[in-house]
Amino acid sequence: MRVEPCCQALLAQLLPEVDPQRQGVCIDVGVGTFAFYCQIFAELNFKSLAIEPLPVKALKKLAEHPTLTLLPVCLSDQDGEQTLYVGKFAGIFNSNFSSLSPQWFGASGHARQAKTVTLQTLIYQQQIEQITCLKLDIEGWEWAVIKQLENIESHLLPAVVMFEYGGGVNRGKNQKGWAPEFFENTLNILKLLKTLGYGSGVLLDFAPDCQEITFDLHQLEISKLDKLFPPESVYGNIILFRDYQPSASQLSQLCKPYYRVNLLERLVNTLVSR
Q1: Which residue in 25, 54, 112, 255 has the fewest CB atoms around it within 10 Å?
Q2: The predicted structure's pLDDT at residue 94
Q3: Could you tell me the domains of the chain?
């Protein structure tokens, strides 16, 4: 399915229901060069933070929006500087695949130093009192950030967490974004969020014939979390809610327009599923 536009449609509809008074901040970590979630957040009149170490011109232009702040840093597990491995896909440099992990399949040998801040430091520096949505797309580094939720005060836990998983090949290959070290971290994220009280969730995968998978994290056994991911999974996003429960019918209605993929998307799927 068409993952990013579907996720954007879901958040555009559901975030105002989660936080109708717009009391919390929405944080877009790993903005990339397209699918600007921070723009959606700002247009919904949420205070929006865009965390992107390699901002493109279009993002810098968006940062002129009065409720959007661009921070050209990496969110990580330490303050200071770390090596950022510039992304590469199909032999072409692509900053969307840039990662702090040298083992990430999209990371190239081309590296640069990037300023890094922890989640706690970000909260302190930006004087954040409430987080409505934390969206993470940081190429294999999601666990390094999400594990910090365990150490922040409960009132600061995001109402909604969205994170990316997989990538590069389908799950059955056990390689690239599905290599054991990365898939284990995906499962670690789910285990921690379950412990922290997150329940209702929806999984959206790029596989052509995949539809949304709704689940209740409270009801899933930790030892069976891997069963959430179909064998044909390629990459996708999981959206989890802490104190909100959208209905399965509502999610289905919102996702249905994004089931079909076009020819180009099918070609990309074939390329990354080899």
Answers
A1: 112
A2: 78
A3: 3-272 (3.40.50.150)
pTM of the model: 0.94
Measured distance CA(61)–CA(50) in Å, rounded: 12
- Burial class of residue 272, CB neighbours in 10 A (0-12, 13-18, 19+): buried
Predicted confidence (pLDDT) per residue in 157-191, tens digit: 999 999 999 999 999 999 999 999 999 999 999 99
Interatomic CA distance for residues 220 and 199, integer angstroms: 10
Q: Which residues lie closer than 8 Å to 101 by C-beta, 6 or more apart? A: 85, 107, 139, 140, 141
> Do 104 and 84 form a contact (C-beta atoms < 8 A)?
no
Helices and strands, number each (H, E), in the chain: 8, 12
Q: How far apart are CA 11 and CA 159, in angstroms?
A: 12
C-alpha of 175 from chain center: 20
Six token digits for residue 11:
């958040």
Q: Is 19 helix (H, G, I), strand (E, B) or coil?
A: coil
Q: Give the Å distances, CA to CA, from 175 to 99, 140, 178, 188, 204.
A: 17, 13, 5, 18, 20
Cα gap 10→239, rounded to integer Å: 9
Q: In what order do the strands lie in the sheet with 131-136?
A: 68-71, 47-51, 25-29, 131-136, 160-166, 235-241, 200-205, 213-216
